Amino acid sequence: MDQILRWHVYPDAADLASRGAQAIVRASREAIAARGVFHLVLAGGETPLAVYERLREAKADWSAWHLYFGDERCRPRGDPARNDTRIAARWLEYVPIPPDQIHSIPAERGPEAAATAYARTLEAVGEFDLVLLGLGEDGHTASLFPGPALEIAQATDVLPVRDAPKLPGARVSLSASRLSQARQVFFFVQGGAKRAAVAAWWRGEDIPARRITPPQGVDVLLDVQALGWCP
Ligand code: 6PG
Hints:
Blueprint: E1 5-10, H1 13-35, E2 38-42, H2 47-55, E3 65-69, E4 71-73, H3 83-90, H4 111-122, E5 128-134, E6 158-161, E7 171-174, H5 176-179, E8 182-189, H6 195-202, E9 218-223, H7 224-227
Parallel strand pairs: 1-9, 2-3, 2-5, 5-8, 8-9
Antiparallel strand pairs: 4-7, 6-7
Helix pairs in contact: 1-2
The structure holds 6-phosphogluconic acid.
6-phosphogluconic acid binds next to loops.
């Protein structure tokens, strides 16, 4: 399926973060009004942390939120390099989402065992309401990196990743097809370092981010620095 792309450009990182947080809360209200629950997949990495921080103050029905992770680094629980550890420190410790509704990837068990276990967790969830993703400088997203491993990304829901070019090498990632089973997908892209990846995406090159093809398309929220256009 071809990827439907919508670009939303913001003047700076602060505006991107606050608009992104507003869009997430809006999506939660729509999902909860329609189905009584909000299934949200969180993006790892640095960029979305500023968005998560703004969610601390949000007026939301946290009791209806179920959180999942698009990928995780295979480090011990609580390790500061883990996405769930960093997201908890910047957001989750400030809001009353029931702990049993925060579905971390058991990445401490190693890529293969964690992928098998998390695929079982996801069996209970159909289409996600919203998936959040970042974009790497090489066009990767979650832990789906360019190269031969990407080809198997369609086969299963959750993938073990070894030798990832972005350290740590051992990771677990939702597959492109599972990340695409979503009503909405937001990419958060910020800063001049992403300019080449954004340009490749814009030109239609087959970067991993282009493999995310939810039926309603994806929304890319980026700042002018990442777009490579400065007034
Ligand atoms: C990870 C992320 C990864 C990230 C991109 C962008 O665990 O590393 O899932 O895919 O989203 O590498 O990272 P930044 O937002 O830090 O640039």
